[in-house]
Write a structure and sequence with these properties.
Elements (H helix, E strand, L loop, with lengths): L18 H8 L8 H4 L10 H14 L3 H12 L6
Protein name: Chromosome partitioning protein ParB
Length: 83
């Protein structure tokens, strides 16, 4: 690193990472599925602004996201059929 006057200043060594912090970060790597792993397909549809507003208000009053509300609705309407 160089200062304005041309003198070099040492930055120092990187501190060692806490093994507890590293374990915490890696804790869910193999066991937890991320949302992207479950929901990889996008669906786009045109709806009226009034319908969008009703959906958003409903999701808000239920304390969920619009995406989660719609996933539940679609799953209920189109359940996976087990042969």
């Amino acid at each position: 690193m160089t200062t304005e006057r041309g003198k070099r200043t040492a930055i120092g060594t990187r501190p060692q990472a806490s093994p507890y912090a590293e374990a915490w970060v890696r804790q869910g790597d193999a066991t937890d599925l991320q949302k992207g792993d479950l929901y990889t397909a996008r669906l786009t549809l045109d709806i009226t602004p009034a319908m969008r507003a009703r959906i958003k208000v409903s999701a808000f009053t239920q304390g969920v996201t619009v995406a989660d509300l719609l996933r539940v609705l679609l799953e209920r309407e189109f359940p996976e059929k087990i042969p």
